[in-house]
Automatic annotation (TrEMBL):
Descriptive protein name: tRNA (guanine(37)-N1)-methyltransferase
Binding sites annotated in the UniProt record for S-adenosyl-L-methionine: R407, D445, L446, D473, G474, N496
Location of the SAM-dependent methyltransferase TRM5/TYW2-type domain: 317-579
Highest taxon, organism lineage: Eukaryota
EC numbers, comma separated: 2.1.1.228
Organism: Gossypium stocksii
Pfam family, one: TYW2_N_2
Length: 590
């Protein structure tokens, strides 16, 4: 018979595992019912719930030590604006107790491939660990090598071959896994070892750029831990001392507190095979302690524990050379120094300065007001883009690394016969890059500091002969270029000033008004950038172009560059200058 007892539950409550009791007779119910399958499935799901991988919410917190916030370079504690320590790095140290297999060094890689699914497999932690004392002593190694070499030489002297054919066949069978014949010193001659560094650091010396250890593996001695005695059982107890190099294979964290009988069959099979082959197992199960330090954890994991719950983690930032450029929201400002220190620590040595933009761009020079939050206070850096180097001072000029892909797309449309006119060139990310491809570049910018860096970058990349630099207003520059003899050679005009570029298009009205209409002209292709917050950004930007040109029929190729802010797009419009606009009556006094 089947006896089922159900309790009255609330509508949204889960079904407990103990409210169903089934008594089944094998003769009456030969197959399990649907209800019993449901119960077993729920039970298995509950028992198998396990959070895998390292986490700051797991493990044990390491004991506190003095001078925990001390900087290893300056030997001074990292402090904030109020001269108080920002945070204690020692609080992010976690200790995990694991089980490991101590195996001979020669067999560690083979066993790693065999037991891959039962090993630790944590990111940035190797499954094969080395601990102090796992290598054989040098004196024993030299004696072992001498004995081995003597045995091989005696074998070679005693062996005699009737013919060269048999000798060649024997050599063909003696190639080892590295491809060397077992001749004495042949491997050393073919592959000389790396030269050892003569300079040795003292105990107290440390390089500035040296990376600190992010994890440490320590073996717990059996004499100190009573729980380790008899872990393998009576069958695998040895009390044996190792006579060769060994390694540790870190097992999965689920096996950290289990004995030998509770291990998977794949691991037990390794012990059994070793015992059968060598009469005594050369593999032993040990307990070890894995310590993960502050340098191990990722930036998001550190900030998640330090910022209030529910706050968005500011993990994205723009990189300009060695400078990390943050755009922190108002909710992040009380924690700006902590965020900057974590960003700096987790991105060294590439990032050496962390800054935050404190206001929007409002001046004509497009310079940003930046606040240095951590690291070096110098804002002069060198940026590498498209194989070229650019010197940039973020305090005086404008630079946006997020437009590198758009600049590369723009360059793909130029050829060696083109002549480019860059109206708002800045420090020259488009002008200098274009000079490698095209015939001639005319670059202009209103900011005198940007012009200075533009000339410096053109010389730095050995392209100064193909770039002519101007320092004037955009409208004056357009009127000066198209009223000169250079007007007929210009094939492309780039206007990368998204906030105001569309307003400068009126300068193209009447640029050819003094030229004869019967003459053939190659009207330039204009590439103008702009922002739009409209529901239909392409239509909105197209209307602004038509209004600026005072031309109703303008065939424009529109493209969205990127999403600058929620609901705000940056667009690029490319069109050939209409003939009616070029020969129109000028309504602008420059």
């Amino acid at each position: 018979m089947v006896a089922i007892k159900l309790l009255h539950l609330k509508p949204n409550s889960l079904l407990p595992f103990t409210i169903i009791s089934i008594k089944r007779s094998s003769s009456f119910l030969p197959k399990p019912s649907i209800l019993s399958l449901f119960c077993s499935t729920q039970t298995q799901t509950k028992t198998q719930t396990f959070s895998y991988g390292p986490s700051l919410h797991k493990g044990k917190i390491a004991p506190e030590t003095p001078f925990q916030t001390q900087n290893p370079i300056t030997h001074q504690p990292d402090v904030g604006e109020d001269n108080n320590p920002l945070f204690d790095e020692q609080k992010f140290t976690r200790v995990f107790h694991l089980a490991a297999l101590r195996v001979p060094a020669n067999d560690c890689f083979a066993l790693e491939n065999r037991l891959r699914g039962h090993l630790l497999n944590w990111p940035r932690v190797k499954n094969i660990a080395r601990v102090p004392g796992d290598e054989i002593e040098e004196e024993m190694m030299t004696l072992f090598d001498k004995r081995k070499d003597g045995e091989e030489s005696n074998e070679e002297e005693n062996e005699e071959f009737e013919s060269l054919v048999l000798y060649r066949e024997k050599l063909a069978k003696e190639f080892n896994y590295r491809g060397f014949v077992k001749f004495k010193n042949l491997a050393k001659i073919s592959r000389p070892g790396k030269r050892k560094k003569k300079e040795k650091k003292g105990d107290g010396e440390r390089k500035v750029n040296e990376r600190k250890e992010c994890c440490l593996v320590e073996v717990l001695e059996e004499e100190e831990e009573d729980e380790m005695k008899g872990l393998l059982g009576e069958e695998f107890k040895g009390g044996r001392k190792w006579k060769g190099s060994t390694r540790l294979l870190l097992l999965d964290e689920r096996y950290g507190d289990k004995g030998f009988e509770e291990l998977p069959q794949a691991i037990k099979a390794v012990f059994v095979e070793e015992t059968i082959d060598n009469r005594s197992s050369t593999i032993e199960l040990v307990r070890c302690k894995l310590t993960l330090f502050y340098d191990y954890w990722q930036m998001n994991e550190i900030l998640e524990t330090m910022l209030p719950e529910g706050m968005i983690i500011p993990s994205a930032f723009e990189t300009v050379g060695h400078i990390a450029h943050l755009n922190l929201k108002d909710e992040h400002l009380p924690y700006k120094n902590v965020i900057a220190k974590v960003v700096l620590d987790k991105n060294k040595p590439k990032i050496q300065t962390v800054v935050n933009k404190i206001d929007v761009i409002q001046n004509d020079y497009r310079t940003m007001q930046l606040e240095v939050l951590a690291g070096n206070h110098s804002l002069v850096t060198t940026v590498v883009e498209n194989g070229l180097r650019f010197c940039v001072d973020l305090a005086k000029v404008y630079w946006n690394s997020r437009l590198a892909t758009e600049r590369l797309r723009l360059l793909s449309g130029f050829n060696r016969n083109d002549v480019i006119c860059d109206v708002f060139s800045g420090v020259g990310p488009i002008a200098v890059s274009t000079a490698k491809i095209v015939k001639r570049v005319y670059a202009n910018d209103l900011n005198p500091f940007a012009v200075e860096y533009l000339e410096r970058n053109s010389v730095l990349n050995k392209l100064e002969k193909k770039i002519k630099v101007f320092n004037m207003d955009g409208r004056r520059f357009i009127n000066a270029m198209f009223s000169s003899e250079k007007a007929h050679s210009i094939t492309h005009v780039v206007m990368n000033l998204p906030n105001d570029a569309a307003e400068f298009l009126d300068a193209f009205r009447g640029v050819y008004r003094n030229q004869p209409r019967d003459k053939e002209f190659n009207f330039p292709m204009i590439h103008v950038y702009g922002f739009s917050k409209a529901r239909d950004p392409e239509f909105d930007f197209h209307e602004r172009i038509r209004i600026a040109l005072q031309e109703a029929a303008v065939n424009v190729d529109m493209r969205r560059v990127r999403l600058v802010a929620p609901g705000k797009y940056m667009l690029c419009a490319s069109f050939i200058l209409p003939k009616s606009v070029a020969f129109a009556e000028c309504t602008l006094n420059v």
